Amino acid sequence: MKIVRIDTQIVEIPFHDGGKGQGITPTTWNTLENVLVRIEDEQGNVGWGEAFGYFVANATKALIDRLITPLLLNREITDIAAFNQELQLRLHLFGRYGVTLFAISGIDIALWDLAARRRNLPLHRLLGEAVRESVPAYASLVRYSDDEVAPAICEKALEMGFSDIKLHEVTVDEIAACRRAIGDDVPLATDVNCGWKVKDTRDWLPALRDLKLAWLEEPIFPPEDFATLASLRGQGVPLSAGENWCTAVQFEQALGTGAVDSIQPSVTKVGGISECLRIGELARQREAVVLPHCPYFGPGLIATLHLAAVQSWVPQVEYLFVEPAGWLYPVESLRSGNQLQIPQGAGLGLDIDQQVIERFRRN
């Protein structure tokens, strides 16, 4: 069945996080920019995907509209993984990372959703043999840069049933304040978004070890400096990274050099479901832990759940701990404490909320 229509749209949903919305991003961050991809075949079957946006939504959308749509329209795609590789080859002139791979990711997720819906099967049935019906999630907090607000939000997450917490705080004092608030038994990680110098990281590792940090995420820049990351391991603080790596090639290099203790592919950034399957196979072969990066609450998060259904080496997934003004999917209805149910309906298993799309569509 041929692809007869491809639509991309940006849906920008405000959220509340209890903080100032400042600290990580170039400007205030208080909305979720979803680049949604809708693909329809000649029999009216529809698949939905999500390409990473996050301040570059317009660029990601433009790349899909200008460069990918002409390559897909009126095509019959029988091998999604092969088409994914074709796109990577055809578009490599425009970069192997960043918005090029974000765009490919959105298309790939939509094609997998479409394929599963055509067969009236949940997506995970196409990806492998399911090993579970739910997956644990940890609460991923935004950066507060406030040693009173951050601990209070940690306590709120625990009250809502989460048992593991990840911060985005960048000072040892702020991390320590959160540890004091929740006690020593709650797993606590932090993501510093490549913000530390190598020397500072080495100097701070003993204190982080004493704080029983579950993992330190992306401590240094550039994130693909695998040799330096490897030199920071083995000091009592597990390292994790991968949100800003793209394609299985970089993950294979990272695993080969022993750069980290766990890897964090993002299905909306890395190249989609097809690329996550390649990365997952690398992880299986090397007995590596996968902690998926899965921002927002759109098709990317739901696709991550289906991948986790068939990958036993994924101990938990990320759950952005904010309150959006609208939900593209009824995500909270999937959650019981820290467990997220894996949808069992056809395709992604949930119907996207068209009213939310209309309400928050950005022109």
From TrEMBL:
InterPro entries per UniProt: Enolase-like_C_sf, Enolase-like_N, Enolase_C-like, Mandel_Rmase/mucon_lact_enz_CS, Mandelate_racemase_C, Mandelate_racemase_N_dom, RHMD-like
Coiled-coil boundaries: none
Keywords linked to the UniProt accession: Magnesium, Metal-binding
UniProt xrefs under Gene3D superfamilies: Enolase-like C-terminal domain, Enolase-like, N-terminal domain
GO terms (BP aspect): amino acid catabolic process; carbohydrate catabolic process
Cofactor: Mg(2+)
Pfam families, sorted: MR_MLE_C (PF13378), MR_MLE_N (PF02746)
GO MF term list: hydro-lyase activity; magnesium ion binding
Domain Mandelate racemase/muconate lactonizing enzyme C-terminal: 147-238
Record-linked PROSITE patterns: MR_MLE_1 (PS00908)
PANTHER family from the UniProt entry: ENOLASE SUPERFAMILY, MANDELATE RACEMASE, MITOCHONDRIAL ENOLASE SUPERFAMILY MEMBER 1
Protein name: Mandelate racemase
